[in-house]
Amino acid sequence: MLPDEPSPYLTDPNGHEHRLESGATIGRAVECNIVIASKRVSREHARLRRDGRRWFIEDLGSSNGTFLNDERILAAMEVRDGDSIGIGDVVFTFHDPDTTTVDSRLPDLEVDTAAGVVRVNRRAVSLSPKEYLLLAYLYDHHGQVCSKDEIGRAVWPEYQAGGIFDYQIENLVRRLRTRIEMDPANPQLLATIRGLGYKLQV
């Protein structure tokens, strides 16, 4: 890191700042850069490391795990400005004054269809079964306009029997927007294409 570049840091629940410079180990041992005196924390619990202009958190084989945005990590994961890092009973917040990654104007949407997990800006989102079916269908066809007829057939098995109305699809879209959009009234991800249907923009 160049001398005139502001260094990223962690803040703990008490508001204390822990500067990272080129990296830091976190654990119970006094040799760690950030020491947490808790039995729920392993001696060397986790490590934050810098790779170029990106930062990563990795668990060092701890007993109770390391959590990024409330999800236990199984491998090194990139951390970004505003992310939370949970270690034992302590939750740190990662701050990068000179944000190392340029965010797009769109929220960061991840849909892991194999695991059935949805994340928005790297935080897990809970969806109802039909909300998930709708999002999974739109995600599989992202960038394409999907008609209400296509959505109905994908989400409602009974659609063929004519038991689904437009307002039900519209209400489902509205509910999904409250889950994945930063401002549901001004959606950025799930756009309405007037007269044609809906398009997921990722």
Can you walk me through this structure?
This protein is of the alpha+beta class and 202 residues long. It folds into two domains: 9-101, Tumour Suppressor Smad4 (Sandwich), CATH 2.60.200.20; 109-200, Winged helix-like DNA-binding domain superfamily/Winged helix DNA-binding domain (Arc Repressor Mutant, subunit A). 17% of the residues lie in helices and 30% in strands. It has a six-stranded antiparallel sheet with strand order 2-1-11-10-7-8, with no helix packed on it. Strand 12 (109-112) and strand 13 form a beta hairpin. Helix 1 crosses helix 3 (166-180). The longest helix has 15 residues, at 166-180. It is elongated, with a radius of gyration of 21 Å. The protein starts with 8 loop residues before the first strand and ends with a strand.
What's the SSE blueprint?
Elements: E1 9-11, E2 17-19, E3 23-27, E4 34-35, E5 46-51, E6 54-59, E7 66-68, E8 71-72, E9 77-79, E10 84-87, E11 90-95, E12 109-112, E13 117-120, E14 123-124, H1 129-140, H2 148-155, H3 166-180, E15 190-193, E16 197-200
Parallel strand pairs: 3-4
Antiparallel strand pairs: 1-2, 1-11, 3-5, 5-6, 6-9, 7-8, 7-10, 10-11, 12-13, 13-14, 15-16
